[in-house]
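User: Can you help me understand a structure? I only have the sequence.
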Amino acid sequence: MQETDGAAAAVGGVPVAELARCYGTPLYAYDAEIIRQRCRDLAAWDTVRFAQKACSNLAVLNLVRQEGVVVDAVSAGEIHRALAAGYMPHAAPGNGEDGLPPVHPIVYTADIFDRDSLAAVASHGIHVNCGSADMLDQLAERMPGAAVTLRVNPGFGHGHSQKTNTGGEGSKHGIWHEDIPQVLQRAEWAGLMVSGLHMHIGSGSDLAHLAEVAGAVERIAADVGRSLTTISAGGGLPVPYRPDETHADLGGYFQLWDATRKRLEDRFGHRIRLEIEPGRYLTAEAGSLVTEVRATKRMGSKRYVLVDAGFNTLARPVLYGSYHPIRVVAADGRPAAGEPQAVVVGGPLCESGDIFTQEEGGFVTSRPLPPAAVGDFLVLDVAGAYGFVMASNYNSKPLPAEVLVDGGQHRLVRARQTSDDLIRGETV
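Assistant: Let's start by predicting it. Here is the structure, written out as tokens:
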């Protein structure tokens, strides 16, 4: 998307100025049709499992559920969200198709059980993807005889930032690949059946690195044996944030994994369910953060545009140096006009790091944008993944509202926090 594209003064066909007038700023707006299309992009896979930590609003969960997408949960709270959005807690008898094993509507994936999550898993009969061997004994005490998936750390990882790399010795995630034989023995002693294998090497990985996972899964599957009925490619599918980036070759990626699955089916003599677990891929491009310009000023050689959203609203730039496309919409709703000028875009927080145009390491950069004045709007795009879900109340700022745009219509799907909400539960 071109940042100065005049046709882009809207989200999902609804003018940015109208959304701001109805709901205020800062505001997250999601285009439902883009989410539907991203779900359908992955229709070749037996199961698409949404990593809801990317965007867990109930309306979004309900939308992907209607598209046949199931969910991953990483906490008791996410299990509760999935149930509230209409997901069943566990597979209904006979819900497999074409000889495939049943699909679990909700899977709990983590490296530990905190006490709340273990209670939720046991109470609802949720399938578990175990990232630590200690989880096996804890699960067996509450759900004897359960089938489990093992999340394996293959010894390598990748991602758009070292902080999102989830494989290799520097990552806490998963069971170390060399420990799998002992862990399988431990599962047997605990009376659990290992029915699935899962690997995820990092968020925002490229397909070349993601492809290496298939070979690792195939090697480890030999240790698991015929009890294996499901393999998961994990997530990490890249999405384009910068103008020169494109979508990945999803067809080629599926063919690679399908070939892996077929070799395992031949080896074990039964069908294997093939899952993929996208998070950002389903929602990133659908989301936009609408924020209002509240000040412009010069600091030496740099021009600053300051808006009412900060890293309390969108944390990815300050955490990872992440790039988000930015467009300017005039206060009257028209696309911004004028010769672009290099500006630094910052927020309202009492922190020098509260800058949207920065690189990893905190280096402040400028972005060429059309002139913006107080009352105009800046729209940060590709903000539908790890946006609202990572927002905070830092500086006692209320969480923003969320809006779903669908077919040219818009509706509030999360109310903006109030000052009373901020102190609810506190005492003097």
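Now, to help you interpret it: The CA atoms of residues 238 and 248 lie 7 Å apart. The mean pLDDT is 91. Let me know which part you'd like to focus on.
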